[in-house]
UniProtKB/TrEMBL annotation:
Protein name (database record): Single-stranded DNA-binding protein
Chain spans, region Disordered: 104-148
Gene3D superfamilies: Nucleic acid-binding proteins
Any one annotated GO CC term: nucleoid
Organism lineage: Bacteria, Bacillati, Bacillota, Bacilli, Bacillales
Compositional bias per record (Low complexity), positions renumbered to this chain: 110-127
Gene name of the record: ssb
Gene Ontology biological process terms, A to Z: DNA replication
Length: 148
């Protein structure tokens, strides 16, 4: 079985974080994700996607990211249901983050005047062997070295 969602987009606002009654951090990151095609007017449209993050993922995002930050999210789709105030059963589909990778340095704490955190521009998943690497580093040879 596979339940995997991968998104790359810019934050539409600063991540929102709160704590459950048990003291567990939870919050949302809201992404604007460009569609892969142009509309009839030749303009690129975007989808606005809310992603739920828990514990250290949201704590770090709330500390280091701001509106406009470019991030990559590895997530899963989760469903649940509850009974509302009118007694009706409500079904909810959510995107829950497993990993968040910071792809640029626009976020809070990533500028040169506030660079005390050694985890800037990284992934906040402890199992990520590529944490701290730049996924978009331009390591391609010049045009003369390309076979096409």
């Amino acid at each position: 079985m596979l339940n995997s969602v991968n998104l790359i987009g810019r934050l539409t606002r600063k991540p929102e974080m709160k704590y459950t009654p048990n003291g567990i951090a939870v919050g949302n990151v809201n992404l604007a994700v460009n569609r892969a095609y142009l509309n009839q007017e030749g303009k690129r449209e975007a989808d606005f996607i809310q992603v739920i993050a828990w514990k250290k993922l949201i704590e770090n995002a709330a500390t280091h990211l701001d509106k406009g930050s470019l991030i990559s999210v590895e997530a899963r789709i989760q469903t649940r249901s509850y009974e509302n105030n009118e007694g009706k059963k409500v079904f909810v589909t959510e995107i829950v983050a497993d990993k968040i990778h910071y792809l640029d340095t626009k976020g809070k704490g990533n500028n040169s005047s506030n660079n005390n955190n050694s985890n800037n521009n990284t992934s906040y998943d402890n199992n990520d062997p590529f944490a701290g690497s730049d996924p978009f580093a331009d390591n391609l040879p010049d045009d003369d070295g390309l076979p096409f």
